[in-house]
Amino acid sequence: MDTHIGSVDGPALAAANGTVGCPASAPGCPMASTPAQPASTLTAGEASLGRHLARRLVQVGVGDVFAVPGDFNLTLLDHLIAEPGLRLVGCCNELNAGYAADGYARARGVGACAVTFTVGGLSVLNAIAGAYSENLPVICIAGGPNSNDYGTNRILHHTIGLPDFSQELRCFQTVTCHQAVVTNLDDAHEQIDTAIATALRESKPVYLSISCNLPGLPHPTFSRDPVPFFLSPRMSNKMGLEAAVEATVEFLNKAVKPVIVGGPKLRVAKAGKAFVDLVDASGYAYAVMPSAKGLVPETHPHFIGTYWGAVSTAFCAEIVESADAYLFAGPIFNDYSSVGYSFLLKKDKAIIVQPERVIVGNGPAFGCVMMKEFLSELAKRVKKNTTAYENYKRIFVPEGQPPDSEPNEPLRVNVLFKHVQKMLTGDSAVIAETGDSWFNCQKLKLPEGCGYEFQMQYGSIGWSVGALLGYAQGANNKRVIACIGDGSFQVTAQDVSTMLRCQQNSIIFLINNGGYTIEVEIHDGPYNVIKNWNYTGLVDAIHNGEGKCWTSKVKCEEELTAAIETALGEKKDCLCFIEVIAHKDDTSKELLEWGSRVSAANSRPPNPQ
């Protein structure tokens, strides 16, 4: 069984010598450039906690740590900077550092951020909660108080004025899968290794607090380079696997028009290839849930689009909901993904495959069955049945194109995304911010190899700016295109500055429509109107002549096509920021439908007592 850490199926991204991520010689973000040393016995001065942590991060695939300095983490940051293969990326605030670690984990399989005690920890907390909801292994490192201050009656700065230092820890307990507070060297080695291993094993964030006086201290447990991790693979219970496959084969083989739908937990299970193998073997039509877009190929002939209830790709919902059996691999069913709980699905027709569990219809259920193994075994035994796909081909009508624009006609959002579609290649990736970009980007047809990320479960506006920083840093072989609304951008705009420092060449489409459009369609009010900014002027001010940056404001299709041509040509090595002026009521039809259904779900009256 594959034990690698990576994307959906990805191989390990870090070599044993730790040379990962951007090359050490790349300018922009401070980083030591000394060559990596072979494993050996270390001198007393080298055998420190800080060095051990830095080496561990490199070994598991972290090449960049997103950090905000504070007095409790400064010594630790010195050790991270000194580590070959590890780059310290200074962010403008902790929230964006957490979002960047989230984006990096999507690109590389694991991410890390470093903050200071409490004021930094509570600031990054929202981003860590988002990573938890999206099943991303993020290692959140907080510099803690001097070890001598624990257990005393002292009141420290960066606290709420009580001699209790556990507030930060207690806040992280509900949004991380493991917490460790390192206050002595004797068990620091074990605590650090356990925390990192747990993040990788559970695919969830962990919290690691390290007292500020410990990073530079030597200890015998750090006297040799750490041995690279070997994480014992989780194996299926063989009897359970056999029983689950048997029950599923019987269920599917008697169906007339079964289909398969991929969900977001395909990433956690690293089951993307096994999913496609099952599609190939079965001949079923297959779709993805919106939060699984980008996890499986959209170029396969049996792909029928995004299944999102009433706002699905045309003809997709009809095929899925009319099927007499549907296998969902790694789904998350919530109010957003079900369009206000309006799916037309029946439990007795569904097979739900989670990373470690299979439920067939109304029962039976099988535990300790790994999704990847299950899908692979199922592919060997299921009968080929192309009925649903043939039905899809019969009813399918190709999608129309937006009408041509008149000369200098105000730019429509559907025209913008027509041109975004033309920009996509296998060397691209798309980041979609919470809002109408969710719906417009879902309609993009991704070429083979094109990445795609958005934060559907948590849906925190502003996520995309930090996530773009982190994803672009981790996937430095791709040019990332981000679609961000003006309201979201106002939350986290500062770290465009960090993108420039790191010499990133992403393309940001800032959609300026004067407010929180997604919230307008759920429930309108004056609070959804925001102060308009001169967004290109703001980015120019952040640029301030340092780094490579190009901005443009476009109001019609002619200006848009010229801007895209410049961004892909003359300014291909620059961070390109294109402000798109759109009408405040110019939204996708999918948002109109989705917003009304979510509004209805939100406004249900209390049940009778």
TrEMBL record:
One of its GO terms (molecular function) is pyruvate decarboxylase activity. SUPFAM superfamilies: DHS-like NAD/FAD-binding domain, Thiamin diphosphate-binding fold (THDP-binding). Its cofactor is Mg(2+); a metal cation; thiamine diphosphate. It comes from Urochloa decumbens. Keywords: Decarboxylase, Lyase, Magnesium, Metal-binding, Thiamine pyrophosphate. It is an enzyme of class 4 (lyase). Pfam families: TPP_enzyme_C, TPP_enzyme_M, TPP_enzyme_N. It comes from the Eukaryota. Belongs to the TPP enzyme family. This is pyruvate decarboxylase. Homotetramer. Its EC number is 4.1.1.1. Binds 1 Mg(2+) per subunit. Residues 245-356 form the Thiamine pyrophosphate enzyme central domain. Mg(2+) binds at residues 486, 513, 515. InterPro entries: DHS-like_NAD/FAD-binding_dom (IPR029035), PDC/IPDC-like (IPR012110), THDP-binding (IPR029061), Thiamin_PyroP_enz_cen_dom (IPR012000), Thiamin_PyroP_enz_TPP-bd_dom (IPR012001), TPP_enzyme_TPP-bd (IPR011766), TPP_PDC_IPDC (IPR047214), TPP_PYR_PDC_IPDC-like (IPR047213). GO terms for biological process: response to decreased oxygen levels; response to stress. Residues 49-153 form the Thiamine pyrophosphate enzyme N-terminal TPP-binding domain. It catalyses: a 2-oxocarboxylate + H(+) = an aldehyde + CO2. Residues 455-580 form the Thiamine pyrophosphate enzyme TPP-binding domain. Transmembrane segments: none annotated.
